[in-house]
User: Which sequence fits this backbone?
């Protein structure tokens, strides 16, 4: 069965340092998509980055990059030069192969950036 | 502003009340979703609408009743809820059923007393 695992319930990082948020996934389908979302205390889920299973290169969006290691089934989010505004919950999600609409979500990682 | 607007932001209701949550998007998206986010649990997909037709219902209790009158509006009608239904209810939309990017609203924080 498809599953997303985020092993870090919480992280403290010094401002301006890079941070890596872990995500591993489990699926037997060769075609899938991986997502990262940020949820600040205000509640809305903000889309950060997407990686398709057939994409040859790691996805990047500004300070966000996805370290996609297909053989290890990991899709870690890397945030470079962290800022105080990066403090939030971060969720990794995978689109279910059996349903075009179902996103399978991890439990999330709470990231706190220290000044 | 996210592009997806949810009202109300907060709602407290008794177990015998009837209330409705509203979601509105003017992004031109054709698919809309209701999610439930409970503390310390992954997000749970409740309902999916594509072109105003319900395409998925993930075994949600009948005390939750969705309505999609047009492609820009989505409602979640609530009646005789239980305390365990207290959660953050998030609405989302995407361009189509294969959307790469989902736009979420800020959610309605529901407390059932």
Assistant:
């Amino acid at each position: 069965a498809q599953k997303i695992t985020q092993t870090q319930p919480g992280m403290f990082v010094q401002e301006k340092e890079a941070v890596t948020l872990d995500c591993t996934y489990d699926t037997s389908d060769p075609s899938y998509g991986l997502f990262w979302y940020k949820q600040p205390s205000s509640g809305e889920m903000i889309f950060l980055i997407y990686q398709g299973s057939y994409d040859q290169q790691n996805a990047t969006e500004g300070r966000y990059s996805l370290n996609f290691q297909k053989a290890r089934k990991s899709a870690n989010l890397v945030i470079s030069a962290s800022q105080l505004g990066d403090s939030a919950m971060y969720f990794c999600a995978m689109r279910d192969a059996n349903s075009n609409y179902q996103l399978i979500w991890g439990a999330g990682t709470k990231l706190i950036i220290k000044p | 502003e996210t592009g997806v607007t949810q009202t109300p932001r907060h709602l407290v209701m008794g177990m015998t009340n009837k209330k409705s949550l509203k979601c509105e998007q003017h992004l031109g998206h054709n698919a809309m979703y209701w999610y439930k986010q409970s503390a310390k649990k992954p997000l749970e997909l409740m309902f999916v609408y594509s072109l105003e037709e319900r395409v998925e219902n993930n075994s949600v209790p009948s005390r939750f009743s969705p309505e999609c009158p047009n492609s820009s509006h989505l409602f979640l009608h609530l009646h005789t809820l239980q305390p365990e239904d207290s959660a953050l209810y998030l609405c989302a939309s995407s361009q189509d059923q294969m959307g790469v990017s989902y736009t979420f609203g800020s959610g309605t924080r529901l407390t059932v007393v």
In short: The first strand of chain A starts at residue 3 and ends at 5. Chain A touches chain B at residues 4, 33, 35, 37, 42-47, 50, 91, 93, 99-108 (CB under 8 Å). The radius of gyration of chain A is 14 Å.
